[in-house]
Every structure is written in structure tokens, then in C-alpha cells.
Design goal:
The complex is a heterodimer.
Chain A (H helix, E strand, L loop, with lengths): L2 E5 L2 E5 L4 E8 L3 E9 L6 E7 L4 E4 L2 E6 L4 E6 L8 E9 L2 E4 L3 E6 L1
Chain B lengths: L3 E4 L2 E4 L4 E8 L5 E7 L6 E7 L2 E5 L6 E7 L2 E7 L7 E8 L8 E2 L3 E5 L1
Parallel strand pairs in B: 2-11
Antiparallel strand pairs in B: 1-3, 3-8, 4-5, 4-9, 5-6, 7-8, 9-10, 9-11
Classes of the chains: A mainly beta, B mainly beta.
Chain lengths: ~110, ~110
């Protein structure tokens, strides 16, 4: 069964600290993996996309990694800001379909 | 803004009401989607339209009725909803069918009383 699982479900960190969000997937055939950021009351916005051959992709303070062998991805946020408070969703494309994780709720406190 | 707009942003309706959600994309895309987002759950794909033709309907109850009059507009007609239908309804568009990147609208927060 195609599945995407994210951890932790929620996370609270202090402003300026780093954090790492995890995404494990069991999908076939794998096409690509995206991380989306969803602010409260808004739709998801794409942060990064990674294909099978890529293992690192950066977008400003966001760095995504992909290990296709272990079927794991992570999203690392450096020097967090209050505006990073949001839900982060891992989405895997497989066989023409998108499989969504349930998201990690990140709260950055001053 | 992502180029996808949704109206209304908030909607409260009774179980016997009929209402419609509207989505418009200004990106020149040819595929549009409706998703349901409930708290603590992954996004659920409801409907997919490609070139104004419905290509996917994921076992959605008939009280939800989509309409795609052209490639820029998508509607979701609602009637006799249940309280468990309360959720955030997201519209998205893409230049092709999944896995092309999808651009999401801000959503309509629906509450069924």
C-alpha cells in the first residue's frame, strides 16, 4: 500500500534554532518527492522537489534530503524564524498519483 | 499569491442548504483539482479535471458535485451536507496531471451545522 508517514506530528522550537522534519514513504513506482509549507488559513506552497537521482536540494534556509535506498526524506530548517510556524507536508508522486503525508505542525516561539 | 483564488474563504451552512464553492486559476494550467483537508489527516483528493473533463472521482458522496465549465474555473456544488463534511476545501491547478507541481488556492473553510 502506498503510504507517506511524517514525524514528529508536532514540534515546538525557539526562534533561531534549527530543526529537522522526517518523511518515510513506501510507494512504487517513485517519481518525485516534494515538501510543501502550509501557513494557517492558506493553501500549501511548494518548497522543494527532488527526483530519484537527487539527494539534496536547498531553498534558502530550507534543505531537503532524499535517501532513495531507505525511502526517507528530511527537511532541515536553519536559524528558524517566527514565520516558519506552519504545517510542513511531504508529498510523493508515484504512478501518476500524489500520496500526501499528514504533515508536521511546527511552532516557532520567540 | 499562487495564482489560484477561491471564494468564499469561509462558509457556514445548514444541512439542508445548497451552496457552491468557486475556484479560478490565472496560470494557464489545464488540470484542476478539489481536495478535502480535515484536521490531523492527509489531504484527500476528491476530483481531478484535465482539459475540462473529469478524469478522477475518488468515491466522493453524491452530495458533492463538481463542475468545470472551462480550464480556468472549477466549482464544487454542495447539498444536504453532513457535519462530518466540515473541513478546509482546497482547489489546485497544474500544467499536467500528477506529478506536475500543483499550485493551491487558499481554501474555503466550510462548517456544516
Amino acid at each position: 500500500k502506498n503510504q507517506v508517514e511524517q514525524s514528529p506530528q508536532s514540534l515546538i522550537i525557539l526562534e533561531g534554532k534549527n530543526c529537522t522534519l522526517q518523511c518515510n514513504y513506501t510507494v512504487s513506482p517513485f517519481s518525485n518527492l516534494r515538501w510543501y509549507k502550509q501557513d494557517t488559513g492558506r493553501g500549501p506552497v511548494s518548497l522543494t522537489i527532488m527526483t530519484f537521482s537527487e539527494n539534496t536540494k536547498s531553498n534558502g534556509r530550507y534543505t531537503a534530503t532524499l535517501d532513495a535506498d531507505t525511502k526517507q526524506s528530511s527537511l532541515h530548517i536553519t536559524a528558524s524564524q517566527l514565520s516558519d510556524s506552519a504545517s510542513y507536508i511531504c508529498v510523493v508522486s508515484a504512478g501518476g498519483k500524489l500520496i500526501f503525508g499528514q504533515g508536521t505542525e511546527l511552532s516557532v516561539k520567540p | 499569491e499562487t495564482g489560484v483564488t477561491q471564494t468564499p474563504r469561509h462558509l457556514v451552512m445548514g444541512m439542508t442548504n445548497k451552496k457552491s464553492l468557486k475556484c479560478e486559476q490565472h496560470l494557464g494550467h489545464n488540470a484542476m483539482y478539489w481536495y478535502k483537508q480535515s484536521a490531523k489527516k492527509p489531504l484527500e483528493l476528491m476530483f481531478v479535471y484535465s482539459l475540462e473533463e473529469r478524469v478522477e472521482n475518488n468515491s466522493v458522496p453524491s452530495r458533492f458535485s463538481p463542475e468545470c465549465p472551462n480550464s480556468s474555473h472549477l466549482f464544487l456544488h454542495l447539498h444536504t451536507l453532513q457535519p462530518e463534511d466540515s473541513a478546509l476545501y482546497l482547489c489546485a491547478s497544474s500544467s499536467g496531471l500528477p506529478g506536475y507541481e500543483q499550485y493551491f488556492g487558499p481554501g474555503t473553510r466550510l462548517t456544516v451545522t
